[in-house]
Design goal:
The complex is a heterodimer. Chain A is α/β, with parallel strands linked by helices. Chain A has 32 helices and ten strands. Among the domains of chain A are: 160 residues, 3-Layer(aba) Sandwich (Rossmann fold), CATH 3.40.50; 89 residues, Helix Hairpins, CATH 1.10.287. Chain B has a single domain, classed as SH3 type barrels (Roll). In chain B, 17% of the residues lie in helices and 43% in strands. At the A-B interface, α3, α11, α12, α17 and β10 of A face α1, β3, β4 and β5 of B.
């Protein structure tokens, strides 16, 4: 990753920038929504998958730019969230930083505050959720806290907007003061303090990493062995960086000998010590013992119970799945209706030819393809937002961690898998997008690369066709086996990725189980809409472009005039002769022409050329071109197969005689059917999913990887099935 | 009474952390969440497969894996 993640930006003199920081679950995003309403957008930094939202709010006739930085517990270099937050504060220099702290959870929340103060940013504290704290018998004396911290502390209830105006007043006051005060100085004990003093002198004397933070903060980061600051330092001034490291080494050796500890440990210990001292003498009053059990804990007794926990989880995940796919059916049908109407409109008004084909099969079908996923994505994000905002998603991760960790995944990977088709009939596109809730980068990547192995709704017609043709009497058993194969394959592939291409230790699980909360409708809607809009905007354009390319591949080159002429003359012959079944015969010619056209197209030619290789798996050119079409959308496999067998455009739901055709074809048997089933489960995701993988993984490299790797695995397995099956005479 | 590792604590048992013996990212994460010497913890539950473990720390609920709890030494009554 480059050092300059955030390019410095001209500060707009008219509207000050207010940056929101805070722990996850501190109500930071709720406050952001309360301040900016719907006037917000997701800021995007190249190569960074962490969201930074920006919005505008008006206060006393002044416009304020509000930036919602990712929620973090600390400011280390171990996670993208922390790096983005740090870089923003250092390089963009917001006019004021509002740190949101949960009033019921002050000690841990102040740990981040203390680090912000050590950076010397202009700070205002937002003491949030004071109502919830009061209910728990916790009362915080904001004035006393403010006096001790040396920063304004404003009590708020972000859900209702209470305290919002006072907070903005304080923030703008702070912004007007200009730069923040001197950085906070905490004593870390004699040994470290001496080392810091020596290092600070060295750093200041040569303005070392002056753009990356105050001298003392740089010294602290050296002591914490912060990967990014060390790398920056090595690049900027290797000699000075080496002498700083030498200071760190000396104090480390000393601490190890005398106190059996290391600087990074001592620094966090002392920060907490500082906070404990700060909160003494009446800043926080508690009616109850701090670790008493609240309502939320009592709910957890049931919801994470050894027996009931998993049962409820199963029900919740099933409910999410039903909710998504049941309620999206109708809007999806409306979308399809609108686009097929547009198609008819175009065909009525455009002359027959390439342009019409481009508009209908390329443009309209392409946009329709993008939009047809929208209802599904919208409902998926809505459902997940409920699970996330209520706090239940963290419990899913907690309960499933033990199982998914074995495969190098995260407990929440289960949501992606189910949505993608873990219960046959999902969709890989929202499945890939659902991985966004995972905060562990390696686990997240492994999840979104393997989720497409699940059996999405569009793969089902392929299975249905093959089952009807070859396994009609074992429908349920075969479908169950297919689901089992998909799960096994996905989990094993994840395991493989995590020990090869995404190698690395499991991301520490250390996770907060936030108290259960009723989500706010406004928060849910904003969440859902903004994520869905991102899909339409970012993925939509690419998807449309690829749809047009695929259309061209299936259309060009066109049949030559003489070839078309032959079909025309056949038609003329039939019309001229006196047969009564002219219509049927004419249709047969049409279908034959469609087959010839498909075979002649670039896709068809590729299919024919690939026959030499795909013979190993038992596939002829017809299967090849159908599977190739499946890259556009898996729904296309069956209909293309229909065209290739001169049956015209087969309706995937009915099969239209295709099953009988396959069953009777000498090139097909049960072994070939299994070979194609296995290939269909594992091969390249449809390109819409590929585009989403590339977007979510932050690199096209991963999109290409999923196409190549999946297809290679699928082909290897299909060949194995076909060869072994044929050898055993199972056909 | 004595020092044991956090993993060995039973449900509803309380104790005070005496040492966190791990460096790097895991060590930092553990300490960032307030698991530092002197902090009182109570085990409030375990996941259905006995791992991870849920703790009450400074008034909030924290979960961590057993192999992560292995680095944390606790003084229990």
């Amino acid at each position: 990753m480059e050092t300059a993640l955030m390019p410095a930006e001209d500060a707009n003199p008219g509207s000050p920038t207010l940056a929101l920081t805070g722990n996850p679950n501190s109500g930071k995003t709720t406050l952001f929504n309360a301040l900016t309403g719907a006037r917000q957008h997701v800021g995007n930094y190249p190569g960074v998958t962490v969201e930074t939202k920006e919005g505008v709010c008006n206060h006393n006739g002044r416009q304020v730019r509000v930036v919602d930085l990712p929620g973090t517990y600390s400011l280390t270099a171990y996670s993208m969230e922390e790096v983005v937050t740090r870089d923003f504060l250092i390089r963009r220099r917001p006019d004021v930083v509002v740190d949101v702290v949960d009033a019921s959870n002050l000690e841990r929340n102040l740990y981040l505050t203390v680090q912000l103060m050590e950076m010397g940013v202009p700070l205002v504290l937002c003491l949030n959720m004071v109502d919830a704290a009061r209910k728990r018998g916790i009362e915080v004396d904001a004035e006393r806290l403010s006096a001790r911290l040396g920063a304004e502390v404003i009590p708020t209830v972000a859900r209702t907007g209470k305290g919002k105006e006072a907070l903005l007043d304080a923030a703008l006051r702070k912004a007007r003061e200009g730069a923040g005060g001197p950085p906070l100085v905490i004593s870390y004990g004699n040994d470290i303090d001496e080392a810091i003093a020596a290092m600070e002198a060295l750093i200041s004397s040569r303005a070392f990493l002056a753009g990356s933070g105050p001298a003392r903060w740089i010294a602290l980061k050296y002591l914490e062995e912060d990967g990014r600051i060390l790398a920056e330092g090595d690049a900027a001034d290797p000699a000075l960086s080496a002498s700083l490291k030498e200071e760190v080494r000396k104090v480390s050796v000393h601490l190890a000998r005398t106190l059996d500890t290391e600087p990074e440990a001592l620094i966090s210990d002392q920060r907490y010590g500082f906070i404990h001292a700060l909160l003494r003498e009446g800043v926080v009053r508690r009616e109850h013992d701090q670790n008493r059990l609240y309502v939320s804990d009592r709910i957890d007794r049931f919801l994470t119970h050894r027996l009931f926990g998993p049962l409820v989880m199963l029900a919740v995940v099933m409910a999410l799945y039903r909710f998504m796919f049941t309620y999206s059916a109708r809007p999806v049908a409306w979308m399809e209706g609108i686009f097929s109407w547009l198609g008819r409109l175009a065909s009525a008004h455009l002359p027959d030819g390439v342009l019409r084909s481009l508009v209908i099969s390329g443009l309209i079908d392409g946009v329709g393809g993008v939009m047809s996923f929208v209802p599904l994505i919208l409902l998926m994000f809505f459902g997940i937002a409920i699970l996330e905002d209520s706090g239940y998603l963290a419990r899913v991760a907690y309960m499933l961690d033990r199982v998914f960790r074995i495969f190098g995944l995260h407990g929440n990977s289960v949501i992606s898998y189910i949505v993608a088709g873990g219960i046959a009939g999902g969709c890989a596109v929202p499945g890939v997008l659902a991985a966004r809730t995972l905060r562990s980068p390696r686990e997240r990547l492994a999840t979104l690369l393997t989720a497409p192995f699940m059996n999405c709704g569009a793969k089902l017609p392929v299975f249905a066709l093959l089952i009807a043709a070859f396994f009609a009497e074992h429908r349920e058993e075969v479908m169950f086996t297919i689901t089992l194969i998909a799960w096994t394959g996905a989990l094993l592939a994840a395991r493989l990725f995590r020990s090869t291409v995404i190698r690395g230790p499991a991301t520490p699980f250390v996770m907060e189980l936030p108290p259960y909360r009723v989500p706010t409708l406004r928060g849910l809607l904003i969440h859902t809409w903004e994520r869905t809009w991102q899909y339409i905007k970012k993925a939509g354009t690419v998807i449309l472009a690829i749809a047009i390319i695929l259309w061209a591949m299936m259309t060009f080159p066109a049949l030559s005039d003489s070839q078309v002429g032959r079909f025309e003359s056949e038609r003329a012959e039939i019309l001229a002769s006196a047969t009564t079944e002219k219509k049927a015969e004419l249709e047969a010619v049409d279908r034959a022409q469609a087959e010839a056209g498909l075979r002649n197209s670039l896709a068809g030619r590729i299919g024919v050329a690939l026959e030499r290789v795909t013979r190993w798996a038992g596939f002829d050119w017809r299967t090849n071109v159908a599977l190739l079409g499946g890259f556009a959308a898996k729904e296309v496999v069956v209909s293309t197969l229909g065209t290739a067998y001169s049956l015209g455009e087969v309706n995937p739901e009915q099969g239209g005689g295709l099953a009988e055709r396959l069953a009777a074809n000498p090139g097909w048997n049960r072994v070939v059917a299994w070979s194609m089933i296995v290939f269909t489960i594992f091969y390249a995701p449809c390109f819409v999913a590929v585009v989403c993988i590339a977007r979510e993984a932050g690199s096209w490299k991963w999109g290409a990887f999923s196409v190549l790797f999946n297809t290679a695995v699928a082909f290897g397995l299909a060949v194995a099935v076909y060869q072994v099956g044929t050898l055993l005479g199972a056909g | 009474m004595g020092k044991i590792m956090l993993r060995q604590m039973k449900e509803n048992q309380s104790g005070v952390i005496t040492a966190v013996r791990v460096r790097g990212e895991l060590g930092q994460r553990i300490r960032d969440m307030g698991l530092v010497p002197g902090t009182a913890v109570t085990v409030c539950g375990r996941a259905p497969l006995y791992d991870p473990v849920a703790l009450k720390v400074m008034g909030f609920t924290l979960t961590l894996r057993n192999n992560e709890a292995d680095h944390i030494e606790v003084e229990v009554e």
